[in-house]
Amino acid sequence: MTLTHIDTNFVSMSQTQARTQTESIFRGLSIFKSVRSPKYHCRIYVGNNKHIVKSTGETSKIEARKVAMELFHDLQNKKRIGVPDNQTFKFFSNKLIEQELLKKSKRLGSDTKSYILRDEYGLDAYFGDTNIKQITTHDIRLYLEKLDKSSSKPLAHSTKSKYLIAIKKVFRIAYEMTIIDKIPLLPKLDSRLKDNPRPSFNEKEYKKLLKVTREEVEKGVKVRGIPLTMEHYYFIVFMVHTFLRPIESEIFSIKHKDIKVIKEKPERLEIQVMGKTGYRQVSSLSYAVDFYEKLCELNKGHTEDDFVFFPDYKNRRTALRNFNRQFGYLLDQSNLRTDSFGTRRTPYGLRHYSLQTRLRMSKGKVNIYWLAKNAGTSVEQLERFYLKNMELNDEIVQNLQTFG
Hints:
Elements: E1 19-26, E2 29-34, E3 40-47, E4 50-55, H1 61-78, H2 89-101, H3 106-117, H4 123-127, H5 137-149, H6 157-176, H7 203-219, E5 222-223, E6 226-227, H8 230-240, E7 259-262, E8 268-275, E9 278-283, H9 287-298, H10 316-333, H11 348-361, H12 368-375, H13 379-386, H14 394-400
Antiparallel strand pairs: 1-2, 2-3, 3-4, 5-6, 7-8, 8-9
């Protein structure tokens, strides 16, 4: 690694100064003890056959190693001079953001952008002005370790994976532009994943939620000044019969022009969704047609460009926040705030319930691949997160005990 900026607070070491217990941490960085001090010093190579030395202030070798690596990367991040703008990590990360935002799903671009531009621990904050040619696998591993230290508990495996994916995409652009001749290996993450199966409802709990929702609507209850209406009831049942996600880019973004009512058997709604995983066409269950028609009666005079749910809110994030609060209220009134594992439920539980129920009601006959495709997920995700804690009904148990 070549550094062109040297902090004047670092003190050069005399070539004649005796050293003992020298240990190389990696190329360009080592720690040692001198005969004159009980504390470890670090020695950092800065290019042109020059080194700088600074005391770590530690007598423990383990702690000295940590301080030395921090000093090494602090010095690296202070480097500003001598790196062409078109070779910095930030140059290629900005190129990536531009490319992602041009894709069909703008959500992909915004997700990548958030990992790159986060104020203190984003990729640009750490690697931004570094020459992309000089970033190694070890540098990336140290970055992940710093992310872990920045929070009260280590980051989830999935979160680290997203950071690594963003890093790899940045390097790929530099490779395509022939600035680098190879992409560094990404650090391997712990393969022992701890999946957190999604909280859901069983049949009895779901029916109780619907009953309480109707009762609260009849009472004219308001949550933070916003009344509960039958629109909230239809939102719940519509979600369960369409497998949509309760997020801004899915159920909250669909407009009447995105829905086509199919009256031929099997009766259904065909819904165009630009969701979390990109564009897909969703085929609903038959009851969704009735729920949609009743919803249209509630919002008479709607146009094709109106949102299907809560059309008075042009800001869809506001509509999302309001519903989340109201749904939380309904869970509390139903004594369903947490599931049997103690996990707090959210509107996502409705989607999980719908996927589980589809498998249960079909008695195992539904094609799991087409179910996953219709829901905008994968078979692996269904098995790991949605179906892991699914209760078995009598028909499924009987099916398990069937002999050929």
